[in-house]
Predict the structure.
Amino acid sequence: MQQLLTDEDYRRIFQSAPQLYLVLDQGLCIVDASDLYLQATMTERDQIVGKYIFDAFPDNPEEVMATGHSNLKDSLDSVIRHLESHTMAVQKYDIRRPEEAGGGYEERYWSPINSPVLDDDGKLVFIIHRVEDVTKFVVARKLQMEEELCGDNGKDLTHSAEQDIYLRAQEIQEDKKRLAILNDELIKARDMALSATKLKSDFLANMSHEIRTPMNGILGMADILLRHDLPANLREYVSTIKEAGNSLLQVINGILDLSKIEAGKLVLESAELNPVRLIESVAVLLSEYGRSKQVTLVTFIDPAIPETLIGDAGRLRQIIINLTGNAIKFSDHTEVAMKADLLEATATDVLLRFSVTDNGIGLTQQEIETLFKPFVQAESAMSQKYGGTGLGLSISKHLAELMNGEMGVSSVKGQGSTFWFTVRLHCSKRDIAARKRHPGRLTNPASLNGERVLLIDDKRHSRESLHQYMTAWGMAPESAESVRQGLTMLGAAALESRPFKIVIVDLLMPGMTGVDLARAVRNDENLGQTKVVVLISSARPGLAEQAKSLGFDACLTKPVLQSQLLDCVIGLLLDEQLDDPESQKNGDKSGDKSGDRSDDNETTTKISAVESRSTLPPVLVVEDHRINQQVAVLILKSLGYESEIAETGQAALDKLASRDYGLIFMDVQMPVMDGYEAARLIRLSELNTKRHIPIIAMTAQVAEGSPEECLSAGMDDYISKPINPDLLQKILDKWLPK
């Protein structure tokens, strides 16, 4: 039986080849070398692999007129441009001797041939750099010429040289045959590698589908149960199921993400994103987790960062959530500061730096060295105490690099860490046009210029964040670490007739509290015009009215968001009443300042929405998995939509022939006829009816080009499994007629 050669066998064959070979990548960095090449150049493999060829073998600095390197560069450039072999004339190279061999350079004469290695699509993969050492013949020729000039033994030397050249020519022919065999073996090895990569990609796509299908059922049913009025103990049980399911899904997603990255199959999206909203949404999302550990989240976003940029918001959010979640996990009773800075800005793109700083357990240098490796945590005890797979940082680092950035960390054991990453994002057409219309626009509102504000908080990051915002808006902020210090500053400023317009104070601080400060301000007639804003750790309905009864003019919930802070400051300076902080968190801009929102009105609105949906054509769900069918029907019913099930693509076509549907949810992986083929046939049938039914793909989104494949098959949008009811509602609102 014929034995198949392994990759290691091919490597040994190449390295043992009886010729001088180098393998270069597209960037002219050395991938591998034959043993004879290493001997001829007096180097070791680990000294040159990975290096740029001209860095690994530099010119002799004493040979000012040397042309070997420039000629080789021209030849390699020709191979890259034309994808054809290029044979060079004999070149003189100075080979550097190791120091232990006496140093200096040895003169060699080589005849190089540079050949491309292409993939199945005809794209350049590697360059084979092969040389023939003709030093002996060149030296012999020089001797011959010298002896001819002297008239001694010229004919004998010529005859000898001719014989040597003939013999060497025969050897070259044999070498060419061996090279052809070696090239064939390299092509086979390449084909095997490409086949293995495709198998891995297909396996990932199938595994994702097989895992997400039952997970969709588990999480979907949990969501449906939580929408019912359950007893407290049952609600806790179902919430535990959902939490455990989401944790398992995070681990699965991490493994799949890492596999996609390693296989080169992860593709970033390119769409408009708002960096301020993105970061602040993460802060709000993780604030409850922070409060559970008595960790205060603080955000600062450079006001110079454009409002809209182009990038992958989902992956950017993934990195920020990972870094911030880790910071909270490894911290207790402290602060975590999230920061975004504008490092560079051109007419078309920006370089942003995101950082997350904590005062947690910190890291040693040895721990940092293994930190970004997959499945590795700083120490096993940490894994036992805090949990986690150790995948998040490795994936985040890869994602940052895919966004043309990098990731790093600075840390002191026992004092805390700062994790940071950079990304380069394109400016949106909207932002570019705005900058052209207002090239000198300022980031600070003119109404805030020079206004004095006092910031009182015992937490350093919180004070610094507020101070940076106020400074960026042109205000004149000052800070105090305690209420007692703040009251002293307030009194001194009033006596100097330079009173602070606004005081922002944390509610709970050691010694005197924010309530004590508000009471003191209200009892001091010199501070009658000073507005007092209180910072609280969590929002609840009616808190604004309660704050006013304690002497505060407004309250803000930590983490303090940029937009809320600006609205609050401008509103107070204009004597405007602010919303309850709970409505601020939800982005309510309705203009209702009373704080009294009727639950009856809200319920009436929801009922009206459900009634209006009942008049719409039904939704068709094309899904072969029984549990997922039930989940889809129940979720759609809870949202007020009638639905029907088709178990296969063919069944969907049959149903469409007899009834009108408002929208189709199409599973892409089904037996007999998959979702892609079904969508194409539906679009083909619509050529006669002139009607377009929105088709939404339900996909695991693992294979490269999955969204593009859905759209090219005629689908309008896609949603990933497990199905999130809120995202499902957004899809329905987007595509179903109102």
About this structure: Residues 377-389, 438-443, 576-612 have pLDDT under 50 and may be disordered. The chain has four domains: 7-196, 271-437, 446-597, 607-735.
